[in-house]
Amino acid sequence: MSVLVYTESDQGKLKKGAFEVASYGKAVANQLGTTVTAISINADETSVLGNYGVDKVLTVSSSELESFNAKIYASVIKQAAEKENSQIVIISSSADSKYLAPLLAVDLQAGYVSNVIETPISTSPFTVKRNAFTNKAFEITQINTNVKIVGVSSNAFGLVESNGSATAEDFSPTIEASNLKVESVDRTTNKVTIADADIVVSGGRGLKGPENWGMIEELADVLGAATACSKPVSDLGWRPHSEHVGQTGKPVASNLYIAIGISGAIQHLAGVNASKVKVVINTDAEAPFFKAADYGVVGDAFTVVPKLIEKIKAFKAQQ
Amino acid sequence: MNILVCISHVPDTTSKINFTDNDSKFDANGVQFVINPNDEFGLTRAMWFKEKQGAKVTVVNVGGSETEPTLRKALAIGADAAIRVNTKATDGFKVAKQLAKVITDGSFDLVIAGRESIDYNGGMVPGMVAGLTNANFVNNCIALEVDGNTASATREIDGGKETISVGLPLIIGGQKGLVEESELRIPNMRGIMMARQKPLTVVEPDETNSKTASIKFEKPAPKGAVKLVPEDNLDELINLLHNEAKVI
Ligand SMILES: Cc1cc2nc3c(=O)[nH]c(=O)nc-3n(C[C@H](O)[C@H](O)[C@H](O)COP(=O)(O)OP(=O)(O)OC[C@H]3O[C@@H](n4cnc5c(N)ncnc54)[C@H](O)[C@@H]3O)c2cc1C
Predict the structure, then answer these.
(1) Cβ separation B128–A106 shorter than 8 A
(2) Cβ contacts of A138 on chain B, cutoff 8 Å
(3) Where is the Electron transfer flavoprotein alpha/beta-subunit N-terminal domain (chain A) (predicted)?
(4) What is the helix (H) or strand (E) element at residue A277, kind and residue range?
């Protein structure tokens, strides 16, 4: 009856999203008066999950699971859910978790709701609040099946520490053969990803050309942030498509989003509005982004950003 | 190659989102509907397979008759035939179940859907279709080539990309990258005329219950006013971000 959480890892290391789904799982388990079991695949160190409310970790280690395969991972999670007799399975909003969730839902004949932002409003009927219309609205949705899958929106519930401890249990599920072969993986090394970043620094067409991105990267560097851009910037080839954020690009749900030379078109805002705090730097005081922002500087990015970098360096040095 | 492209009929990205019936239903009044952007990238890639590899392209939507103009637009862009499954799309599972039936009945080798639709943002239909039809599945697909019975598909991962080789039948959750923005097509007069002659078949749904139900909608609380900081006082910005917002 435990709540099952899929705690994702990347190259052996648990991701931040793993601690968030654990925290969320603990809150749901409290509502239901039950415990939390985590399933983790090839993670090196899982006892830390106890700090986020996990009681037991099913640890799977297998060289066959080295590269992510949605179908096979879904089958591993399914077997864990059956072993634990879990009625509720919680996953994150990472690309991989969103990839496997619908397959898992079919396997478990479960109802699946994605982008959930709060603990359930009610557990019977099981009712959750989620983002819809790309952050332009919330939808209250009820899951009517016995087994339920909840996809938790990134950075919405946050991390909640609790002082428990997690026992580890080796778990050896049956691993299906794959008919999908990973030929190559191309990673932007050593960079914070938009999905995991606490802070995102984003540049728009106001920056005039790709040669001016040095200061954007430097600002991101001093803040430990990921870099992003508006759609025309990626369409013009100034930045890679993987940095395009907005309604038709990647969603951003960071703690801090800094928009530089971005006007704040409705499609851009929709995709980044889930960020908690927004700062806008723009020469045009009438730019629509100021209406959606928390803090703003009306000014030229080419003078404001270099000054801001110096100020932040000084601030960090003092800390 | 027999390709099915799944087309979701969604409010234009600039639409104001409102609700009616006690906030239980999306208010379509005055809203312009379009092909879901993620699906449009897939449709355009399918046109390339049609023109370069002789594929046949069928488009499908699960929805009421109000979605037909969107299907006609897909025909005007170049799809050969359209299917509408005549039922309300009440949740992702129900839509996937209907699509699975269309795929089995029509023996499609390649199904291109969008990674999510921009209205309900469920992000589950393509994966569920793959699960239900036991086909291979690649999500967040940003490049796709097909050679005989094998495809090479590139998917976006958090922090990079990954290229996969995979056999047909295959379901794709597609997005921008499948084609470039500049390759998207606006239907021309000839396309629009020809679309009128192309078959749009309405099929009745099979009995499927939804697994989830939409109860109610809410809109975000209005935003407070922005705090402007003069550009010669950036210390104040840092102070606000550190002490007030607590984000640095
Ligand atoms: C179907 C559809 C989907 C879309 N999806 C997305 C999406 O997902 N993401 C997205 O971003 N857009 C999307 N768009 C595009 C969107 O409508 C806007 O065109 C786009 O967001 C504008 O990008 P921008 O703000 O970088 O450029 P602009 O609108 O050109 O704005 C540039 C801004 O820079 C400011 N500026 C100029 N010089 C300086 C300077 N020296 N210092 C500081 N500021 C300066 C200007 O005042 C201006 O506000 C979509 C559009 C459509 C039709």
Answers:
(1) yes
(2) 217-220
(3) 3-192
(4) strand A277-282
Give the pLDDT mean for A146-150.
98
Among A179, A208, A232, the domain boundary falls at A179
State the Cα torsion A40-A43-A44-A48 to the nearest 10°.
Answer: -50
Question: Does residue A53 fall inside a structural domain?
Answer: yes
Shared-domain flag, residues A152 and A207: no
* Residue A147 domain-assigned (yes or no): yes
Shared domain check, A297 and A226:
yes
Number of Cβ within 10 Å of residue B173's Cβ equals 29
- Residue A75 sits at the chain B interface (C-beta within 8 Å): no
Give the CB-side neighbour count of residue B54, counting CA atoms within 13 A. 2
Q: State how far the Cα of B140 lies from the Cα of A235, in Å rounded to an integer.
A: 18
Residue A189 has pLDDT above 80, yes or no: no
Put simply, the chain A residues between 187 and 216 with a CB less than 8 A from any chain B CB are 187-188, 191, 193-196, 198-199
**Alpha-carbon gap, residue B150 to A3, rounded angstroms:** 39
**Which of these, A79, A68, A128, A116, lies nearest to A253 by C-alpha position?**
A116
Its domain, for residue B178, covers: 2-215
pTM score: 0.96
Q: A227 by DSSP, 3-state: which?
A: strand
**Which pLDDT value is given to residue A183?**
95
Instruction: Establish if A260 belongs to a structural domain.
Output: yes
Q: Which two tokens stand for residue A277?
A: 């705090």
Q: Does A8 lie in the same domain as A141?
A: yes
Type of residue numbered B50: K
Phi/psi for B157 (5° steps) reads -115, 170
Query: What CATH number did the domain enclosing A109 receive?
Result: 3.40.50.620
Q: Are A5 and A21 in contact (CB under 8 A)?
A: yes
ipTM: 0.97
- Say how far apart CA B108 and CA B4 lie, in whole Å: 6
Dihedral sign from CA coordinates of A196, A201, A205, A209: negative
**Which tokens sit at A198?**
């606490």
- pLDDT score for A308: 98
Residues 6 or more apart whose Cβ sits within 8 Å of residue B69: B33
A229 and A134 within one domain: no
Q: Tell me the CATH number at A289.
A: 3.40.50.1220
Q: Which atom of ligand 1 is nearest to the CA of A302?
A: 41
- How many other CB atoms sit within 10 Å of the CB of residue A306? 14
Residue A188 forms part of a structural domain:
no
CB of B227 less than 8 A from some CB of A = yes
Q: Is the pLDDT of residue B233 over 70?
A: yes
B159 pLDDT above the threshold of 90: no
What residues of chain A, 93 to 112, have a C-beta less than 8 Å from chain B? 94-96, 98-103, 105-107, 110-112
CATH number at residue B75: 3.40.50.620
Q: How many domains does chain A have?
A: 2
Contact between residue A268 and residue A282 where contact means Cβ atoms under 8 Å apart? no
Mean of the per-residue pLDDT values for chain A? 96
- Give yes or no for B245 touching A (CB within 8 A): yes
Q: Which domain holds residue A113?
A: 3-179
